[in-house]
Structures are given as C-alpha cells and as structure tokens.
Prior knowledge:
By secondary structure, this protein is α/β, with parallel strands linked by helices. It has helices at residues 17-32, 39-42, 61-69, 87-96, 104-115, 124-132, 182-192, 207-215, 230-239, 254-261, 289-299, 315-331, and strands spanning 2-6, 35-38, 50-53, 73-76, 118-119, 170-173, 196-199, 221-225, 242-245, 266-269, 282-285. 38% of the residues lie in helices and 13% in strands. Helix 10 links the parallel strand 9 (242-245) and strand 10 (266-269).
Amino acid sequence: MKVLxxxxxxxxxxxxxxxxxxxxxxxxxKRIGVDVKxxxxxxxxxxxxILHVWSVDIGMLPFITTARSxxxxxxxxxxxxxxxxxxxxxxxxxxxxxxxxxxxxxRKSNQIINLADYVTPLCQFEAERISxxxxxxxxxxxxxxxxxxxxxxxxxxxxxxxxxxFDHYCLMVGRIEDNKNQFTAIQAxxxxxxxxxxxxxxxxxxxxxLERCKxxxxxxxxxxxxEYNKQKLALLYKKADLTIIPSKxxxxxxxxFESLSQKTPVICTNxxxxxxxxxxxxxxxxxxxxxxxxxxxSAIHFDKNKISDEGIFSWTDVAKLYISVYKSxxxxxx
Length: 334
C-alpha cells in the first residue's frame, strides 16, 4: 500500500489546526509502517496506489483527474464542516453551477467530491452535508475525527514548572486573526473583569488585527506567543478555568478536544461542525460580545469532574481508521 498526500499548499508545519491534523496523520501512518509520501516531494503518481486529498480546493481537480487516469484510488477529506457556510446556499450554488460560467468554483468542488472513491469527513454534520447536498453515496462515507498528541491522553503530561501569570484565567489557543475573533473575546473578558491568556501568534497578514487586539488589552490579558511544547500547552489547559473558541468559522477545532482532555470546559463557536453535540463541558455561543459574556458567566463555573474522556482519540487511533479506509478502497479494486 503506497499513499500520496495532497494538500492545497505546501504546509507551514506550525501554522494551525488543519496543518497539525494532516501532519499528525502522516507521521503516525509512517510510524505504523505505511509507505506514505507528500506529493510535493515526489511530483509523480507513478508507483502509488492511493491519492489522499485534504481539501475540495478547486486547485486539487487536475491532480485528481490525472491520478485517476493512472489508476490511483482517491480518498478525500473534504474540510467542508463549517456551519458558517449554509447548506441552502451550497444547494443553490450547486444548481446554478449547471449554467456555463456560473458558480464555477462550486461546480469544480462538486466534481472533486464525486470523483472520490471514499470520503472521510470529520463529523456527522459534514457527513450529512456531503451526502445530502452533494448526493455522494453514504455507503462510501466514513467519519474519522481529529486526534490528540499522546501527551494529552490520560493526563500523561508531566510539566509542573510552568510560570503562569494568573491563578484564574480563561484561555484562547490559535492564530490571532479576524476569523478567530480574539477581539470580541477580549471585549467580553474586559467587561466581565476576568483574566485571559492568548496562546498563538498573528496569522498571515494579520499583524494589524493583532495590534487592534493589543490596543484594547489591559494587564488582565497575557499574550503568551506560540507554545510548541505540548506538555506546557497541556498544563495551560489544565490550569485554565475555561477555554474559549468564538471563531467566525470553524470545522472541528482541535482545541475543543485538547481542552476537554485536560478536564477544562470549552466554549465553542456555534458555526463549527460539532455544534449541537451533547458533550459534558462543551458549550456553544454566537460570535457577539453579549452572547459570549452570557455563556462565559455560566460555563466558567462548570464542575470539571463531570468531564469525561469519551470521544478522545489519539493520532495513532485516527491513523488506523484511515488505514481501514485505504484497505477497503483497494479491496474493491481486486
């Protein structure tokens, strides 16, 4: 079994959750013994069995058609799980795309999905979207969730020497950019008189947004910077009263599971794929200041002892689920 990974761009290995997801799966597949390569390293489909495509970005289409012409099977992780994109709009765009030169991007995305031999969405909402909106056969869809680094599993982190500036604080983890909505979170935290630590750095072309955030920040807001030490990050989660993800658009944030693994409740945007899922310690919010303030006041007092490990997977677990898909696709070819 020889697998090629194809992504929309050459990944910045420390950019964000999507990149972490792809790279962790890649590295764990290699660790298990799967012969897997990045397409950008080999620039060839020759000798490979499967092309695993990590996006419905229209730039993927020529690669997919070429790979299929050479006999490769296509496994697609579509990344279409954000509720900021409405199903009614996607249906309308799909219908309009039948008209020449109209909604070309949606036409090509639809082609990409329907050229796949198997689709692996991250959550139930995304699976239903792929089946109902794009009319892809449910029998060829398998939900494969995000995983966590081993340090987050079973309280294995051992870091105890971390100097944290607050005894009580809320936590935000991720790129600092407009979509992540740190500005609104800072407003809410200031008005509630709470503390917050922001872990991350400015995203691409977001330096001005970072400066806007700093302009309204007081001594109660700590800009931690990027934290690549997983043990330190796990301890930041564990010591926090609450983790906040008020993004304007998300799919299935890794931060949700990282936080819950450390028994810290999470407020997540209601624009992500897992909105509505009933999970102990997981709350949902709209992206406005008042809505965020209201849910913070409730969630910050949640009993951490009620948070379980249910639904927490290691990246090794996730890699094994992908292997089962690869085997299924290749078996159908025999």
